[in-house]
Design brief:
The complex is a heterodimer.
Chain A: E1 3-16, E2 19-32, E3 36-40, H1 47-55, E4 63-72, E5 75-76, H2 82-88, E6 93-96, H3 110-121, H4 126-139, H5 145-148, H6 158-170, E7 176-180, H7 188-205, E8 208-213, H8 216-222, E9 225-230, E10 233-239, H9 240-245, H10 250-257, E11 307-308, E12 314-315, H11 331-337, H12 340-352
Parallel strand pairs in A: 3-8, 3-9, 6-7, 7-8
Antiparallel strand pairs in A: 1-2, 1-4, 4-5, 9-10, 10-12, 11-12
Chain B: E1 6-18, E2 24-36, E3 40-44, H1 51-58, E4 66-71, E5 74-75, H2 82-91, E6 92-95, H3 109-119, H4 126-139, H5 156-168, E7 174-178, H6 186-203, E8 206-211, H7 214-220, E9 223-228, E10 231-237, H8 238-243, H9 248-256, H10 262-266, E11 285-290, E12 293-297, H11 299-310
Parallel strand pairs in B: 3-8, 3-9, 6-7, 7-8
Antiparallel strand pairs in B: 1-2, 1-4, 4-5, 9-10, 10-12, 11-12
Helix pairs in contact in B: 3-4, 3-5, 4-5, 5-6
Chain lengths: 353, 311
């Protein structure tokens, strides 16, 4: 499949009174046409900043992109000026934000907010844009779209509002959809609906999606590929099966181990000790070393490169170096590696009975 | 849970809010359950189902509209003398959802934690107070240097630990934890849950654990009640509830949780809850289907559920 977006060695920094925060420290990834790439990580790992950089939404002048390229259709988005970026934003690349309560304008009717982009980018007249807005609301599953476009955001429930936000993002048939924790603020049943909706729309429109979340359950549900971020870097990237059934990075082990599975009643959850490092002064060597029970001496001295595990799977940990000792991943992760699926099959039966 | 001593009894608890001259919101509408000493009782449901209101009413943050709450056999609500109220407040404590909003930003950690100690007269000298605070900080995995800092100097997980230390300060028997981990990162969630489990063992605590994250609730709870629109629709031991959910709402809720397992996710079928499919020939009642497994249902539905569970 062809690459629609290439991110090369992206760095983002923010100047603050306390000093320079290195929020993103060299991120590389490709996005293929029609795929969903999930970016997971804790808050402060740089996942939101990365997508904001793709959208050209890094607040200036405090935020800067000192290094790196974002190649989209032969153009480097990192170096585009505001005017050119405005033509791409909302048309080719659009974004769904986390909080549907704040990302809509409370003083504008929902219809008007959807039509805004259509009139600006597609040069539609008002009547045409209105028809398209009704179509979009219908597409995202809002009943009575004809009446609903004349309502204000406060007249919608949280899930319905997020549908409106998705409709706005889809208005101009974007090639790339950036979804920044689109379901975190929603209830599980509503979350399931929104995820189904997004997958459904992706099938119809062949949009590529970058999906940011910290919920590994959601990742397993939507993603084709997964990038795990820690302290401003991608520490492991691979297909969804690579990451869930054959994880290599101790941080990924920690993340997977800290989520209770259905059969993990007895053993203790593996908590990752400590907290993420201060990105004002990123530590020398591997940023995860301080929290890593498997850390070796080299981790405090040199940063690990991305080692290749397979054609689709890369991980940045010295454990993959040929001289590294063999280590046993935690029990919960080992269960995953062999026959995790069989363990869960029994649970699935339970739910259906 | 060997003793099976009832610590808390909630009977037909109702909490209605007036929202206008002619409209009321029935946030909690006839909820009954018991909590035994030493167990963790999970209360789950979607936002707006009344789970937080239930917790807040139990601890007297709201006056109940109707119904009884008995803690160790004594009524929680109604008029109380100052000393009785003080005694009650000491035995029941709460951990709040938002570690950013629930700590006073103008008080140091020491002041926050020792406030309860002073109110209940548990310490007499400043030295004693300081020692006790240092002790509590260590119990929850912080260190004593943190005592003189302010809440803004801490991360979310650390703040939640301060909230837990504050609740533990007065040596309560029963703690209501209202979504204590929802605002935290995944890796930090596990830290806090492990801490709560350890503390439970050490101090013989009883928890009411309110949450919407079903997998965490399953992990920490002995028994779980599922709430829907102000009513408990199903109550059972946590394994039983996950293995044999009977009420259609429980089924839909369980089928909606995404699990961190791609193979399972690819084959998942979601069950959608349709409230109109219920038998409406009579008012549904809370009935016991098999020992310790209760479902809100009518007599007709009861038969159907019994058949379902025996197959």
């Amino acid at each position: 499949m062809e690459n629609i977006l290439e991110v090369k060695d992206l760095h983002v920094t923010f100047d603050t009174y306390g000093g320079k925060v290195q929020a993103v420290r060299g991120v590389n990834f490709n996005l293929k046409k029609g795929e969903t790439l999930a970016i997971v990580g804790e808050s402060g790992s740089g996942k939101s900043v990365t997508t904001k950089a793709l959208m050209g939404l890094i607040p200036k002048p405090a935020g800067k992109i000192p290094k790196g390229e974002i190649i989209f259709e032969g153009k480097d988005l990192a170096k585009l000026n505001d005017k050119h970026m405005q033509q791409i934003r909302g048309r080719d690349i659009s974004m769904i934000f986390q909080d549907p309560m704040t990302s809509l304008n409370p003083t504008m009717k929902v219809g008007g907010q959807i039509m805004e982009g259509l009139i600006k980018h597609q040069k539609m007249n008002k009547a045409k844009a209105k028809d398209r807005a009704i179509e979009l609301l219908d597409l995202v599953g809002i009943p009575n779209p004809k009446e609903r476009i004349n309502q204000y955001p406060h007249q919608f429930s949280g899930g319905m509002r997020q549908r409106v936000v998705i409709a706005i993002a889809l208005a101009c048939n974007p090639k790339i959809l950036l979804a920044d924790e689109p379901t975190t603020a929603l209830d599980v049943t509503i979350q399931a609906q929104i995820l189904e909706l997004m997958k459904d729309i992706q099938k119809k429109t062949e949009t590529s999606i970058v999906f940011i979340t910290h919920d590994l359950g959601v990742v397993a549900n939507v993603a084709d590929r997964v990038a795990v971020m820690y302290a401003g870097k991608i520490v492991e990237i691979g297909t969804v099966d690579d990451i869930f059934y054959n994880p290599k990075h101790p941080y990924t082990w920690g993340l997977l181990g800290s989520m209770p599975t259905v059969d993990s009643k007895e053993d203790e959850l593996i908590a990752i000790p400590g907290t993420p490092p201060d990105l004002m002064k990123p530590p020398k060597g591997d940023a995860f070393a301080a929290r890593n029970p498997y850390a070796m001496k080299i981790d405090t001295e040199m940063e690990p490169p991305l080692f290749k595990v397979s054609d689709t799977h890369y991980a940045a940990t010295w454990l993959l170096h040929e001289d590294a000792p063999q280590v046993e991943p935690p029990a919960a992760v080992k269960r995953r590696m062999k026959g995790f699926a069989t363990a869960d099959a029994s649970d699935e039966k339970g739910e259906e009975s | 849970m060997s003793s099976k001593e009832k610590l808390l009894e909630v009977k037909n608890l109702k909490q209605h809010f007036k929202t206008g001259r002619h409209s009321t919101v029935k946030a909690v509408d006839g909820v009954s359950f018991d909590i035994y000493k030493g167990e963790t009782f999970g209360l789950v449901g979607e936002s707006g189902c009344g789970k937080s209101t239930t917790g807040r009413t139990i601890i007297r943050l709201y006056d109940a509209t109707d119904g009884d709450v008995k803690f160790k056999g004594k009524d929680v609500h109604g008029k109380k003398s100052k000393t009785n109220l003080k005694e009650f407040n000491r035995k029941m404590q709460m951990i709040f959802q938002d570690p950013y909003a629930s700590l006073n930003p103008r008080m140091t950690v020491k002041d926050i934690i020792s406030e309860g100690l002073d109110i209940h007269g548990l310490v007499s000298t400043d030295k004693e107070r300081t020692d006790r605070v240092h002790n509590l900080l260590e119990t929850v995995g912080l260190n004593k240097e943190h005592a003189n800092r302010y809440p803004h100097e801490f991360s979310g997980g650390q703040r939640q630990r301060i909230g837990i230390a504050r609740a533990l300060a007065v040596e309560p028997e029963f703690i209501i934890a209202d979504e204590p981990i929802s605002a935290l990162d995944v890796s930090i969630q596990a830290q806090v849950v492990n801490l709560m489990k350890d503390l439970q063992k050490q101090h013989e605590l009883t928890y009411l654990f309110i949450a919407h994250d079903l997998s965490m609730v399953k992990y920490i709870s002995d028994r779980i009640a599922v709430m829907y629109f102000g009513k408990i629709v199903e109550l059972a031991d946590s394994d039983e509830l996950y293995r044999n959910p009977l009420h259609p709402y429980t089924k839909s809720l369980l089928s909606a949780i995404p699990l961190p397992d791609p193979d399972y996710e690819r084959n998942r079928t979601r069950i959608v809850y349709d409230p109109s499919k219920h038998d409406t020939s009579e008012e549904p009642e809370f009935r016991e289907i098999r020992p310790n497994h209760w479902v809100l249902c009518t007599t007709k539905e009861l038969e159907a559920y019994k058949q379902e569970i025996n197959n």
